[in-house]
Amino acid sequence: MEDTAGGRKPRAASVTLRDVAKFAGVSSATVSRMMNAPELVSDELRARITAAINHLGWVPHAAARALATQRTGTIGAVFPTVSNEHFATAIQELQDVLESAGYTLLLGCTQYDARRELNQVRTMLERGVDAVVLVGESHHPDLYPLLAQRNVPFVNTFTFHPQSEHLCVGVDNHKAFFDFTTYLLGLGHRRFAMLSQTADSNDRAFDRREGVRDALAEHGLGISAAHMVEGFWGVRVGRELFSRVMSTPQPPTVIICGNGSFAIGAMLEAMQAGYEIPKQLSLVGFDDFEVMSELPIPITTVSVPSAQIGRNAAQMILAELAGKERAQSIECEAEIIIRASSGPPPRGKGSR
Fold first, then answer.
1. What is the reported pLDDT for 232?
2. S-S: 205 plus which of 11, 83, 197, 281, CB 3.0-4.6 Å?
3. In the chain, which stretches have pLDDT less than 50?
């Protein structure tokens, strides 16, 4: 095989920036400038250098580039799970926006474990991520100090608190469920149950639960302990929680589900048990998974703009890294989507 000067391609693993510069007939500094700030290089030079890179198969050394720029070009994102349709949508949007800006996304999943989230963020920081995207505002007590110590920008997603000291983008979960409950009260419901996701490590679930309680309290009502039940996650858990609240002496006339999986499971269990929905029982949910509108009885739900949250989170991180001005928190609007699963309470006891 010929050498580079004679037109022969060297092995890609041995190609250096100097080889690219020599092949393109420019200085090494020009190649470096084109890689780090292409807008500063003329179209003609960019074309020559790009042709040389493609011909030689050169891949810039990430560690060397990070040393020169003090950036690795990577962003860390830690989500509870990717099995949630809305998290997956946000991650896709997040990646698309960051990729178009020249960044690579590193993803971790915690399964709602705060200690695991802390360890994943620490590992990402050790690998030199330039910023971090998180879900929710409540994290392991060591997480915020760790990010502050490393001076790494971050944004909390799928949550919004007007008074939060941290950058965030998402819906106000308390407000969304306060408004949802108020809507159901307006239909005439007075006996409520809620299938809530375990709130120990999930501040969004806690806020939704408290939104329901506060709306009821404003009308002089409450939820009995037997009707406020919790579970970790999943369709099967939703079925089990539904059966539990409906076996109480005075079953509810409406069940609010704190996530989409619970709503789907509760609907499947209700249909199997022979409940006429919404004639005998209203059943409503959160998220707006595609299947929720395709079930035999489509589910009334609170919809969250997950794609918008992902895009905004990426743009906020890019703004923080640009350092021109401080990014601002963004409240996204939750939308109540009314479908066939909700209606006025039944006359009488509301049981089958």
1. 85
2. 197
3. 1-6, 11-12, 63, 67-69, 349-352
3-state secondary structure of 182: helix
Do 222 and 135 fall into the same domain?
no
Q: Are 113 and 201 in contact (CB under 8 A)?
A: yes
Residues 51 and 78 in one domain: no
Please state the pTM of the whole predicted model: 0.79
**DSSP letter string over 304-347?**
--HHHHHHHHHHHHHHHHHTSS----EEPPPEEE--TT--SPPS
pLDDT tens-digit map of 102-150? 899 999 999 999 999 999 999 999 888 999 999 999 999 999 999 999 9
In a domain, 29, yes or no: yes
Tokens of 4: 């580079």
User: pLDDT tens across 213-268, in order?
Assistant: 999 999 999 999 999 999 988 999 999 999 999 999 999 999 999 999 999 999 99
Could you tell me the CATH number of the domain that includes residue 31?
A: 1.10.260.40
Q: How many domains does the chain have?
A: 3
* Strand 192-197 to 168-170 pairing: unpaired
Give a yes or no: residue 95 inside a domain: yes
- Asked if residue 260 belongs to a domain, the reply is yes
Q: Are residues 28 and 77 in the same domain?
A: no
Q: How far apart are CA 50 and CA 239, in angstroms?
A: 57
CB atoms within 10 A of CB 35: 17
- Coil/strand/helix, residue 81: coil
Return the pLDDT at 61.
Answer: 56
Residue 338 lies in a domain: no
* Residue 300 and residue 192 share a domain: yes
Q: Please calculate the CA angle 229-233-236 and round it to the nearest 5 degrees.
A: 85
Nearest CA-CA partner of 252 in 332, 114, 122, 350: 350
Host domain of residue 33: 12-68
Cβ pair 197, 233 in contact under 8 A: yes
Q: What is the pLDDT of residue 5?
A: 45
Interatomic CA distance for residues 286 and 196, integer angstroms: 10
Strand 154-157 to strand 168-170: parallel, antiparallel, or no bridges (unpaired)? parallel
State whether 156 and 232 are in the same domain: no
